[in-house]
Design brief:
Elements lengths: L6 H4 L10 H6 L2 H16 L17 E5 L9 E6 L13 H7 L2
Antiparallel strand pairs: 1-2
């Protein structure tokens, strides 16, 4: 396992890092500018990734059915969106309120 405080520790056994747009836009302007600079740097380095659809990993929001229901490690086959994710409402959402609710 990686050392606490490193990116590899934060991403331990996780293939993706997803940060809601609402959360990014709630950060201070200078932080957002630094983040954008890193994205520009990645673009200039030629980093290209595919587009993704993101579903919240919470049975209240998304129901996932596995190929083999008895095997927790089997691939996911179907997804059913149970209700909209409030973090996806970047036009009218409030990151501060959502952060407090999820604690």
């Amino acid at each position: 396992m990686s050392e606490i405080g490193t990116l590899s520790y934060r991403l331990y056994r996780t293939p993706y890092l997803v940060i809601p747009r609402l959360a990014l836009e709630a950060m201070p302007q200078d932080w957002q500018e630094q983040f954008e600079a890193l994205l520009v740097e990645a673009d200039k380095a030629g980093l290209q990734t595919p587009d993704y659809h993101v579903l919240r990993d919470d049975p209240e929001f998304t129901l996932a059915e596995r190929n083999d229901p008895e095997d927790e490690g089997s691939d996911l086959r179907f997804f059913t969106i149970m209700r909209p994710d409030p973090w996806a409402d970047y036009r009218r959402g409030d990151a501060q309120k959502l952060s407090e609710v999820s604690r």
